[in-house]
Design brief:
By secondary structure, the protein is an alpha+beta fold. 17% of the residues lie in helices and 39% in strands. The mean pLDDT is 89.
Length: 196
């Protein structure tokens, strides 16, 4: 995905407010060997891009003042509490040879067909919706699929049990983090008590 930007010369709250009135969003690019650069981007294009999941977890091609595109990752963004207004963006430069430490969304499939739901009458509880990973930019997935088709009743699935795309690993600190769990509903528990 491509992002067009221009260099931002004026700094401060007043300058940022005038930018937003003009339909622009203040942003910054940092990381790598180069110094941080203050930039501005078009509000409407960024507003619509932020609604796409891939924009948050893909390597973006950022062009500043029509120059050479550089690879960046969206690291942070701020939006207005109640207006449809993007206030600020942070982009981080990435190197093709250095591993990224970032989060990607999880997509859960097959939960309704799992033994836990069909036979155990349990509910699949998603404990997290994104996962911290470590990989080279070329291997960065848009999302990781979690297949729950064979999940049994009363089982908790941990990060170490996920099938990861090639070149993707989970940092040691998060390897045993619980991802999803099959839990009994109040109705299911009362049915079991009645059966006993």
């Amino acid at each position: 995905m491509k992002v067009e930007a221009v260099t931002r010369t004026l700094q401060g709250t007043g300058a940022s407010r005038r930018l937003r009135i003009a339909g622009k969003v203040p942003a910054i690019v940092y990381g790598g060997a180069d110094a941080p650069v203050s930039i501005e981007v078009d509000h409407n294009s960024i507003f619509h891009a932020l609604r796409k999941e891939a924009f948050h977890s893909s390597i973006l091609e950022l062009t500043i003042d029509g120059g050479t595109a550089q690879s960046v990752l969206l690291r942070d963004f701020q939006v207005h509490p109640y207006k449809q207004l993007v206030l600020h963006l942070d982009f981080q430069r990435v190197s093709a040879t250095e591993k990224l430490h970032t989060k990607v969304p999880l997509h859960f499939i097959g939960g309704e067909e799992s033994p836990a739901v069909k036979m155990g009458h349990q509910v699949i509880s998603h404990l997290v919706t994104e996962l911290e990973i470590l990989c080279l930019p070329a291997n960065l997935p848009e999302f990781i699929t979690v297949d729950l088709t064979h999940m049994e009743a009363g089982v908790t699935l941990h990060a170490s049990q996920l099938v990861l795309p090639e070149g993707v690993e989970i940092p040691a600190a998060g390897i045993e983090a619980p991802i999803v769990s099959a839990v009994a509903t109040a109705k299911g528990a009362s049915d079991d008590a009645t059966a006993e």
